[in-house]
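Late entry, written up from scratch paper. The run itself happened at the end of the previous shift, but nothing got recorded in the book at the time, so transcribing now.
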Amino acid sequence: MAPWDSAIRFEASEDGKTYWAAIALDTIPVAGLEVDGFSSIEALESGATSQKVTVQKVGRIKGVILAHLIPCVCEIAQKSVTYHTIVLQLLAPTPNPDTPIYCIGLNYRNHAEEAKLTIPPCPPMWYKPAGALANHAEDILFPTVAHTNFPDYEGELTVILRGPTKSISNAEASSAILGYTIGNDLTARMFQDPKRCGGQYTYAKAFDAFAPLGPRLVHPSKFKPSAPNTIETRVNGKVVQQSTLDFIFPVMDLVSFLSQGTTVPYGSAIMTGTPAGVGFFQKPQAQLSDGDVVEVEIQPIGVLKNKIVFEK
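Output as recorded:
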């Protein structure tokens, strides 16, 4: 039995530190939840014996005064600390936010068809730098160089690995997966133009905060990364992408492929590709605008939501 069905990584209102907490799948991950926060995902999974003490704390969240008696739990066996605490901000649910993000392209036939691209025998892959990582409910600042070059969205299932892993087989891939979350592979689409930039993807997608992830991590035992599960992307409430998770390169294949001869770092995120419906291929084309709200939904993971803000 998994010690958690889903987990959140968050900043606590009491001390501003980062914690992990297990929450039920039917609990919506939002700021203001009262949870038992662990210092790491490993501490959460360890099942260490706890001892409770009480700490009084008064704080303020967005103008609302809070006065609480906060029981502090010390996990003596694991020398880590658990706090009964309040979620101030949900953070991208990866245990290693300082590693580059793996990105996969052309993993849905419907997207390859709308882009009029031939599906290759191996999955196209590139990196987003660690600085591209962003959080659920965080405003995403599009720099001028990006929002003047067709800003676009790409809703994607995202895999978070345990690791580090290297040269693992498809059969071993499932044990390397920590869980599943949602990502938005934000893009300045014109920088993907082969005539302009030689067909490279990294510059178009590597701007700061161009990889929001969240809102939670769902345990592999509670989610299957395949049909009939679906993904839906909405811009200002309008559905723009809707597809089953009908991957050309299934998740286990991707995990194995990326690890061949290469050490994939602990806690790495793999964005698994986007279905048809990106703004560039809408008819008429529909680029993101200042103030747009983009939501990507995959149940039971939830809804990743971010507001787009153009740099002035």
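The chain has seven helices and 20 strands.
(Scratch paper discarded after transcription.)
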